[in-house]
Protein 1
Amino acid sequence: MSSVLDSDRVLQKPQRKRIRRPITAIEAAEAAAFADVAAAICVLSRVLPIAGAAILVSSIPFALLGARRRLRVGLLAGVTGWIVALLFGGYGTANMVGSAAVMGVFCGIAIRRRWSGPTTFGVSIVALGIPAAVFFTGLLAVFSTYREFMFDQIRNGVGGTARILSNAGLTDVQALDRAVTAALRVWPLTISVGTLVGVVLAAMATAVVVRAPVVSLMKRLGQPVTDSVVEETGLIAPVPVSLRDVSVTHPGAITPTISGINADIGVGGLVSVTGRNGAGKSTLASVISGRRPTMGSVFRRGNPGLGAPGGTAVIGQRPETSVLGLQVGDDLAWGDPHLTPQQAADLLDRVGLRVGLDAETARLSGGQLQRLAIAGALARNPQLLVSDESTAMVDKSGRDELMSVYRGLAGTGTTVVHITHDADEIDRADHTIAVPGGDTTTHEAPSSARGRMVAGGGRIDVRGLRFAHDSGTPWHRDVLAQVDLIIAPGQTVLITGANGAGKSTLARLLAGIERPDEGVVLLDGVPVQNNRTGALFGHQYARLSLVRARVRDDIADAAGLISSSNPVIVESLREMGLDRSIADQRVDHLSVGQQRRVALAGLLAARPRVLVLDEPLAGLDEPSRVAMVTALARVRASGTTLIVVTHDVDELTPIADRLLEVPQIEPGPVRLARSSRASLAGVVGRVLPGTSPAKRLWVGSKVFAIAALALMFGINPTWVSVAAAVIIAVAWTAAGRVPVAALPRLPWWIFLVMLGGGFVTAMGGGAPFVTIAGVELGLGGASTWAILISITIISFYVSLLFCWTTPMVEVPAFSQRLVGYAAKIGVPAQSVAVSVTVALRLLPFMIGDFRVLLQTVAQRRSPGQRSVRDRAEQWSACMPIACALAAQNAREVAASMDNRGGIGSVSRPDRRPGLLDVVVIAGIVAIVAAALVLG
């Protein structure tokens, strides 16, 4: 029996009745990724006084999703963002994300459907304004005590403002006070009309602000990826497979990525796929694993069975997006909750991964993550395993170990297709498929151009350097100790060492990005600065070093040139061995090798005294590696002091003056500061090290505590409720063994807001009254304000306690339990569990990428350039790239989900609550009930 997939079958799609399709893997992944972007912005706003602006900015990723996907995906993203923000930032942050989601998704739909202004206005009234008015009016009707509490705040605030203005000589301000008081007497009408008008105005303002950036981002991202996996039933037989004249043209592209490919892959054995960067090797791998070609034929005996037992499994290049679970055991059980612990352990043994099933995947090295990805693929006993450059980002020993695993699998009957640039790996294959085309724009610069961009290197002096991540906090981790180093002007130094030794950290210190805890890093006798006049840093992931859309614009921005037509741009490209025609291309259309050299061209055009590069050869094919080494030789010839972190010592030794190996230090005792050194942004979403009774509690018990406090404050916002909340928070703090060093330093403006608000409400507040310096103040108003501030602080602190005492790895199992409860009442919620889990998995990488982007933009700023406009431009430059990276991460995660069978269970079964949980829940109920009765 044979199955033929050809162009006729692709083009002749049967007409089907429109049905309600379930959420697909790519939709869930995009919902999670864009929700992460919005949640991160709103969490950051908790440490900056920009809440309103944060809601507006965070609506952009939701609007982009609304413009790209159907309404259900936007709603899923909103729910996901709300949950993630609640876990990391408390009620206030969650409500900010919720507001951004509503406004953003609505505006995205308006863009997608091309609504006119009047249409957008009318629909906003019906779809947003009226439902919001009904909801908030009903909510205030139910929680009457909280309603009066908030009305007191409004009366006191308006009365105090009116009194202050009146004392300043303004007349008729008391009329405002009387108008507000009268409006609150008829609050159902006032709240309904006010909410409707406010929501509609907010929606229209958001639509005006986000339209331009969303339209620009849609052009940048291209057509949204859709699920194109061949869906067939019957026999699963991915191999043998024959490809005849296969071509693939991606949506929006003019030329095919691959064209006229012919190949035969049999049963068993190791097949290597080679080709230049950009040749389409990954596209060919997707066809081999079951995606439809644009033209040509694919012959098999049956269905490729991507993600199905006995079918096809795929492992990607980036282990961060190939591994889906937050714990090792959960990743192996993704989509298969019935996997036994013994079966999981056998899979780990099979790939040589010596870690426990409860180990956190975020703490594994790159090589360990790739082994776990292989084990997850093997969980379904595939006949065909496709490795898409899975060894590219692993050091030499790790590559050898992974190749041994693949060789062993091939010897036991599994067909392994491995995409690689490495000559040794190609030699170990039984058969090789060469993909033509790709990056062929390597050009030798004319001799007259070499060395013309003379920079003049600087001298680096490192004395007594010691550095630890999160120094003086509970998360303190020593990285470097007693480093003394001198790098002469113009020297080229290679930095190498074992994974985790601190190579990249040392590089960031030498570039002035990080500051040492002890010692100094001097550039020509003064502390090194990360800018054009000091030291510049080139990241391993070149895309994070490019912040403008076009090549010439990015080089001009990196070099501080006024005009993007400056001849220095073409000259810098020639120095990197690139043709001048690349200057007008978009950076997203370049191959990885080209992006690396364009980033280096921009760095060198800035003429820094010191240039620090992190793994410049990683992931490049052989021609691109040769071109990069040649380019680095030219950098050396320019006189720049060059520092390169690399595993590829053999290839770079000929151009280096010195080799520095960073030793791995033994972790010492954690040195906690007497007073907190932690910033508010640095403690959000982090679990405390060590064990504690609070950590051992079931997740549901802690979620119950948060919900109970919210309900108590909604029913009875009084000092009695505040006291009850303090009792619960103090008990939680003690049970969590929270050290003083974990408590964050609050920003100065928080105290200013507290004092200012208290003064205004005291000016308009009620009895009892006191007179201070001749000013009569109402302690009643001050007390109401103090209750509100206390509720806000306690709510945020409780969210911190939840993060500090709840490993995020336990959340997916709890969410899977809730999915089971929802299913019993007929509510499908599996996509929510999947999206939340993916969001928690991606959030650390997204935050890391965003920090790198901010650093890239910051190092391009001239010394002293700190105006508000400049900072706004820096943030606006990061937003499109953050969304583009979110879309890319979503594509890779969706592919990984498809490789595991699509939407399915996200973890092993949740553990049951114990006796301690019952006691804790009963205690919370008793405290809250007492507060409600006494209040």
Protein 2
Amino acid sequence: MEGGRRMYVFKIPFKTLKLFGLILVLAVGLLIEQRVVGSVANLPTPIDQVKTEKKVMALTINVDWGGEFVPGILEALDKYHAKATFFLTGRWAKNNPEMVKELQARGHAIENHGYSHPHPDQISVSANQEEILKTEAIIQEITGTKTKYYAPPYGEKGASGLKAAENLGYTTILWTLDTVDWRPESTPEIITKRIVDPAVRFGIKPTREGAIVLMHPKENTVKALPNILSQLTKEGFQFITVNELITLEGVGDTTS
């Protein structure tokens, strides 16, 4: 006793403390998981194909380098009366304003590929928004038209980039068919086959009708493009912009 008061000491077995700690960790983990899942569930879904029975495709060309190959791509598109959507980085557009004007003059769509081609999943929502807005301002100054579609660099579709695009009123665009033309082993023949006769992936044969095709300005792409356009044109396909494809019949399920 001390000062006439009795002090009581409660002893909690170590096993009980350990069990309580485990329960606390599990509870916190469950709460975090629910918040993450809820956040992911609310993310916008990127568009990578449109469900349609019409023989139409949207060719997209992502440009951050390879400007020397853009004229060759334009020649092939003109020859087959095909329209494409060029997703430009802001830094490329800033350094090539006359080429941007040429793309517009030839009737192609010009959209947003971010400014400096970072990994969207590795930077914050605000940093992604800055990338998009800088590019938007540059392209609008050159063309007089505001961009509204966003192709994330590297095709990344994490929460940071998707939320940034959504916050700015953009629709995120991915692809159905990938030429993978940036790889050294991608010959013109291989590139052509990936689009004209796409391989089965995950047990599914990609549907070419309503497909979005990904390309880059590469030498072998320039060589493959006339073959792609020629073969598919003979099959009755038309090549339209992403906006025209999306507004054609509505967005459908993807094959990727």
Protein 3
Amino acid sequence: MGIKYKIIQFNINEFGVNIIELKKEISFKSLGWDKNDIKLSQLRFLITKYINDKKVILQEAQCFLDGRIVPNSIQELISSLSIEDQRKFHAYKPFRKRGISQFMVEYVNKQWEVNHVTLPELTDFAQREDHPLDLRKLIRRFPPMDKTTTQSILLRILIKKCIEMLCECEPQVKLKKIEVTCHQMSLIIDSSIPSVCNSPEGLHQDGSNYIVSALVIDKYNIEGGTSELYCVEKKEIIKSHTLERGEGLFHIDKHSTIWHKVTPIKLKNISLGIGYRNILGFDFNFIS
């Protein structure tokens, strides 16, 4: 494990955490489908079909995402699609299951203390936009991770170890308080679609001081899912690695030259029916 460009590729074995034990404490079975992905896919589809109407689509995008009545302007565009395009528009289905949790980490008595923050039944989440058509600026609502996961001792160890890496990358910043948001995601694929991707927005930044863009907990019957980091106006690739179980990628994000994405996954063996990639992601934001 070494630092370059404030990027650290790590394995949880280095933290004294066993991936098998971690999988026992963090279950992905109870996660609900992220239905935001359906409407975001539909919005992206409409923008590609009606690029001259993108301003109107973006103005009504939040209302459309919130699940209220479809705005008239959006409905008119949907109705104007060809029969084949209407079929494609309505054929989108969720491809990720996810939950979210939040922790406040404070430096007290010369050690880091990790305290869970209770979240509402549905938590508002948005990210900084990287370009005008970046739909991540819209407010999405995610359910909290289950109680067993948020109380995991091993999860707290991981958070503390990531904070230590952060401090190693920023020795001049005397941090005392850091907000940590944890994303639990299961990317799922079956034979009905050729591929799915955990970064449909493409190359991006998340808008946090530091992130773990992915820590792979488990994966099954898939190919792809390669993490790629770029710098120098998003053109020069500086890191490319397909994370295996127990491996993660920690790096600087906001106001840096580092941009990231992950390649799509596809089924390795179609006869097995499904494949998945289960990960944790972390956002670290300086409070004081």
